[in-house]
Amino acid sequence: MAHPPVDPDRIRNFSIIAHIDHGKSTLSDRILEITGAVEARDMRSQFLDSMDLERERGITIKAQNVRVEWKGDIFHLIDTPGHVDFGYEVSRSLAACEGVVLVVDAAQGIEAQTLANCYLALEHDLEIVAALNKIDLPAAEPERYAAEIETVLGIPADEIIHMSAKTGEGVPDLLDAVAERIPAPVGELDAPLQGLIFDSQFDQYRGVVSSIRVVNGRLRSGAKLTFMQAGANHEAIEIGVRSPEPTPIDELGPGEVGYLIAGIKDVGDARSGETVTTASDGAPEALPGYRDPKPMVFSGLFPIDGDDFETLRESLEKLKLNDASITYTPESSGALGFGFRCGFLGLLHMEIVKERLEREFGLALIATAPSVEYRVTRTDGTTEVVDNPADMPEIQKLDSVEEPFFRVSIITPTEFTGPLMELCQSRRGEMKKMEYLSPERVELVYELPLAEVVVDFFDQMKSRTKGYASLDYELAGYRPSNLVKVDLLLNGIPADAFSTIVHRDSAYEYGRRMCEKLKELIPRQMFDVPIQAAIGGKIISRETVKAKRKDVLAKCYGGDITRKRKLLEKQKEGKKKMKSIGRVEVPGDVFINALKLDE
Amino acid sequence: MNEFGVYIHIPFCAAKCDYCAFATWTDRHHLAEAYLAALHTEIERAVADGLPTATTVFVGGGTPTQVEPAALADVIAAVPRATDAEVTVECNPDDVDVDLFATYRSAGVNRISLGVQSMSAHVLAALGRTHDPDNVAAAVAALRTAGMSSFNLDLIYGSVGETVDDWAQTLDAALALDPPHISAYGLTVEAGTPLAESPAQYPDDDDQADKYELADDRLEAAGLAHYEVSNWARAGHESRHNRLYWSQTDYRGFGCAAHSHAAGRRWWNVRTPDRYIALVGRGESVVAADEQLDVATRTVESRQLSLRTREGVESAAFSASDLDELIAAGLVVRAARSTVRLTRRGRLLANEVALRVRSE
After folding, report:
1. Domain B5-246 has what CATH class?
2. Residues of A in contact with B205 (CB under 8 A)
3. Which DSSP string do the residues of A105-169 spell out, in sequence order?
């Protein structure tokens, strides 16, 4: 089908920025419906959240893009993730846009992370169209929160759209505002091709499928392409747009957003931030890419069945294609055998990666206690970066250790200020700023050691504020701290993979709590299992998982036999998710769960 | 003659116990007459299709004593039986007297299983049971008068609020009635029961282990030998019907929710009495679903079932290394003719052992 490039003046490229639950997915659904891209009867709820995991957890992890038509204009709606761990995905989505739609819950107001993403959009010189959602709720106070948005972002309150993504009210006004206020993309049709890849996913039948924004020139189906940063050539086997079903077309012009399939199998060749041009007469310069997101949290992932090591390597390679922020290097542990030291953006990211590896690749894994990156100076003056407590030099050879700090911004209703300050102080936080956004809401800024933030800070904050506070964070540099390594012994044997580095003042408490939690989380075995925490060989805490005494089905008569056989089969399956450490069977997610909030 | 079992399900109860997950109803007694008629019809059709002669019959529920005794006796009498067949009816001690037992006896019933559960009133109340412990002694006297040759007392231990002393009292009171057979079950949380909804009422494994050991001590001392995880009997009074289940022998279940087995195929009937009556009335199949066990599954199941019995299982059911470990851990011991059987500790951890059973 001949398809001349769309006139850039008719194009609007935008993302929706919203806090979790403020209605971004519902709005995306409604836009698809109102523009006729999806018939109402075909509407899967939350069309754009296509990963099972996203649907289950109700959060968007991967950016998606979709083309719709509104009153003769072409809109590309580029979805962004909604959790603080995935902030980097937001900035890469924004690179493909000229504007954003800011969606704020009219009953809750703007949240810290949304605000941070708006600042990001402003840094990219993007136009912000603000909308207050859920005006159909009895608790909605659109005027109040419009005033708040005007205060913090300088968007005039009377320009803010009032809408309900649920009922559809106001959504056409929003689309009109997008057409009117968000600038059209600027690009040269006759210039050499420059296309920006802002997301890539691996499809087992088609290879790499990339989301691409054409900046200048024409991207033609069948063209020989050069991926400039990777320095590789590929043919454009198929280009197309998602509307929302993938629809192949011949050509994409400046400002257009679509997908590109180039038969790429190599994991490294189509990273986000890559510039694509034509192999002959290509652009002399690549587009500015963006910084690779930096992993903040490190943990060992080990296959429960040692034979799965290679499968784990291949699975990580494939996942990395969709999620450039994961890092991994092989690691071996006395307790757990061969695995990978992996870097993640945060604890949620770590959990999601582990779950995806298990679900999508059929692996059973154990994750070790998460750690941050420490800068270590030895007594001989040499320095090194340590992200694995097992690699921490012995205390005699240690001169000093520096740990990363985060600058954390929290927006909260004022009534929770006290509990939040207590939380931050208990995590060695130092207050930097406290600013009232309105009489009811305040922004707190603290500097906290990253190690104190990654674990359960987010959950603690949510529980202390009934879910009303929100947070954003950024790295604030390294500082020396008085840190020690706490080792754990299972059944008297040190489990190297479970050592953790903590502040000396909280080491005893940490050891005690870990022993208690592990006692709860490690199932009773056929024998007593002592769990001990130790610092430098000295035991600081001990618990015992008592040997189990009863594990038998009481009845086994005619009608029970089939059911009971299935129970035993299930019990057997359960054992396959356990890792044997020494003679002790440990559940694969024991350390993730041990670090979670106490119920 | 080959062993063959018949099970008849009576789905009516006066009250539903909090722990019960069986197919029983407290509000459908009006269906009883039609239900028994349907049972009669299903049995007659099966006989016409060549139902083998039963060596054991077991009438369970539900509460069989909730239906008219003479009508139930007619249903039982419709089952072709060997002359020495074991014929058992489960009874609620509240519902029985000499006349009822005599009526059953006339239909060939020779064994009674009494649902005692506990001899402690507060424990019974906590289980959601209605009967009065004093009725148990009266029921035993009545079944003896009626000439029943054997009987069983069903006991349950481990509910929250039952002390070890309560359980010891229950055992002593039960043994004072000189029963030839006792089944003692650890209270089990089954999905979908009121008990499952209240985690505070969940039994404690250690408490149940203590009570199991107490029961085993007292019952063995009273001359009732353990012959399956939850069953003890005087020699010659072991339940033939239960043994048939545990040896993968063929059996046929009649009534709603009843299970059947023939040579590796298992099937089960529709769950509700209403559906059952309707299907029998229309002459249609009452089977809800079935499964065919492959050879490996059948072998594993057979070994897992034998493992629970006093006779034990062939040592080849375990790999040599697993067997060494199980013996070293004190869970199994070697017995005659290359078999192994569970120790008392092993009986309490029978699942751990059963998980290691292999199919080859």
Report:
1. alpha beta
2. 548-551
3. ETTT---HHHHHHHHHHHHTT-EEEEEEE-TTSTT--HHHHHHHHHHHH---GGGSEE--TTT-T
